[in-house]
Amino acid sequence: MRDSVTWKIGGEAGFGIMSAGTVLARTFTRAGYHIFAVNDYPSLIRGGHNIVTVRMSSLPFNGINKDLNILVALNAETVEFHKNELSPDALVLFDPKDKEWVASDFPVGVRLIPIPLRDIISELHADGVMRNTVVLGATVALLGAPFEALFSVIRDQFAHKGEEVVAQNEKIARAGFDFIAKNFSTEVSMHLSPGTVTEKQLVVNGSEALGLGAVRAGLKFAAIYPMTPINAIISFLADHAKEFGVVYKQPEDEIAGINMAIGASIAGVRSMVATSGGGFALMVEGLSLAGMVEAPLVIDLGMRVGPATGMPTYTEQGELLFAIHAGHGEFARIVLAPADAEEAYSLTIDAFHLADKYQIPVFVLTDKYLNESQWCMKLSTLQKPVTLDRGKIITDDTGKPDGEFLRYDASPEDGVSVRSVPGVKHGQYYANSYEHDGLGHVTDNAVKRAEMVAKRLRKIKAIQSGIMPPQRDGDEQPEITFVTWGTTKGAVLSAAQILRAKGKKVVVVSYPWVFPFPVEETKTLLSSSSRVIDVEQNATGQLAYLIRAETGIDIQEKFLKSDGRPWLPEEIVDRIK
Q1: Would you say 408 and 440 are in contact if contact means Cβ atoms under 8 Å apart?
Q2: Which of these, 459, 429, 439, 282, lies nearest to 355 by C-alpha position?
Q3: Among residues 402, 456, 439, 453, which one has the least CA distance to residue 424?
Q4: Least packed by Cβ within 10 Å: which of 218, 409, 512, 534?
Q5: According to the model, what pLDDT value does residue 441 have?
Q6: Separation in Å, CA 61 to CA 3, 33, 65, 312, 340
Q7: How far apart are CA 93 and CA 24, in angstroms?
Q8: What CA–CA distance (Å, rounded) separates 485 from 517?
Q9: Residue 442 gets which letter from DSSP?
Q10: What does the alpha-carbon distance between residue 577 and residue 575 come to, in Å, rounded to a whole number?
Q11: What domains can you pick out in the chain, each with its CATH number?
Q12: 235-257: average pLDDT
């Protein structure tokens, strides 16, 4: 039996590739396995080659790896594209009516599992697209799992469509399962060891995890214009808006979106926007407005391959420096970078608290790999209590005479003045894009200007006193220290595990909090290693640039990747000399 199996399904858009991956991920999550699923599709409105890769393991792991144990081909093109990725003992499931593949077409050791998918579908009088359901049944059989594990997911997935639809899908999946049991009963090489997770888990993508964190943090207003790869948060919030008590608006563009969210924040509710690079470029003027009026705001910036439209459906970490430096003028902001769905959830909660505490914009940097991949999360993580901290806000009566509430009082040591919301007695003030005095009145007085700049920038010192330190995973006195951020962390952790098995001492330093930068902690962590390697999903080493700018440490060795595909741990290991 195996501890881990990686399964890939491919075919044309419209073949149900994505839904097949989701059903398989849910099936094995319920059965007590750790899962991870990542998709790959071209930047087309319709058509093209789509794939989903699902890894299932009885042991914890950190994302996808190079192994490909089972390839499910719903067309001949899938085999052509992926046959050279197969592990030596892999299985290939295909319909002979697509092409009569033979063993010599593949690397030595690969075994073929021909399944007459079209004939099975025809006999059951089903739609041809339901071949994906046949191969799900076949897959479950090849992995040594009971059919009920799959059927329980099918039953729940299609319950809203009625018993007839549930029964049809059961019959089709059962046909695939029975075909393997009858014709390949001795093929047990991919049977999985029993699942070890006893606690209930959910399968969520990164955008859903972020949305859950936002709702738990008290989100009440979101204005989001659709843009890959953050779109899943739109459907999540729109589908559950009434249940969560959230107002979701789709604005006419990103400029309107950020201004609507700033208005909601000034009105007193927690608000957010989500976008990708091109959309955020349109938001930059609004970002500076939030800095000037000191409005709390959370921004989910879902990075993708640029510049310009780039490759919209692929992944990159190219906007770290953009988030740090965006906006005209000088004002405080915080940049957080989750590595997985659980961090997307928890750091989003932190983002809302920090935005209110310091009355600033807070970024949650995500990417396609995080946003659209599917992760398992323990239900207990989502059930932990969340205490809302709204910071310095008055919602009843300021106690000040009319016209004397200093919304922008320059005296607080931390630069954070008390704010009110519309309708609060004696709490009225002026909020606009011009420089202002403590009451919000427009001014171009030199003394007042310098006073307001100093007030806003004092927040940076206050923020620095509570920075989340970098995470350190690994050995004492390491030979190699990897430095990374965001979703690249998973591949680096896996690479470190492989290197330790080869006898090397390795440490991984990762940054869930990227800006303001944790200077002293970084100096301490990087001073103990003779070899420091920066690993990033971009072409210029943006984290390494930031480290040099903030600490003076110049990381010479950089492993950089900018082809739009996520790092695999084996790729990192192969670069170690």
Answers
A1: yes
A2: 459
A3: 402
A4: 409
A5: 97
A6: 11, 11, 10, 28, 12
A7: 15
A8: 12
A9: B
A10: 6
A11: 4-183 (3.40.920.10), 203-383 (3.40.50.970), 392-466 (no CATH), 471-575 (3.40.50.920)
A12: 97
CA atoms of 256 and 493, how far apart (whole Å)? 40
| Cβ within 8 Å of residue 335, ≥6 positions away | 320, 323, 324, 362, 363, 365, 513, 514, 515
Contact 503, 355 (CB under 8 A): no
- DSSP secondary structure letters along 252-299: SSHHHHHHHHHHHHHTTSEEEEEE-HHHHHHHHHHHHHHHHHT--EEE
Task: Assess whether the previous peptide bond of 114 is cis (omega < 30° from 0).
Answer: no
Please write down the HEC assignment for all residues of 286-349.
Answer: HHHHHHHHCCCEEEEEEECECCCCCECCCCCCCCHHHHHHCCCCCCCCEEECCCCHHHHHHHHH
Residue with tokens 């299932």: 56
pLDDT of residue 128: 78
| Its pTM surpasses 0.90 | yes
332 band by pLDDT with thresholds 50, 70 and 90: very high
d(CA 342, CA 489): 13
Check: CB of residue 559 under 8 Å from CB of residue 487.
Answer: no
Q: How many CB atoms lie within 10 A of CB 177?
A: 23
Distance (Å, whole) CA 177 – CA 136:
8
Q: At what angle do helices 163-183 and 131-142 cross, to 10 degrees?
A: 50
Give dist(CA 401, CA 391) in Å, integer. 23
Residue 403, classified by CB atoms within 10 Å of its CB into exposed (0-12), middle (13-18) or buried (19+), is exposed
Structure tokens at 14: 């419209």
Its sign, for the CA torsion 362, 220, 278, 288, is negative
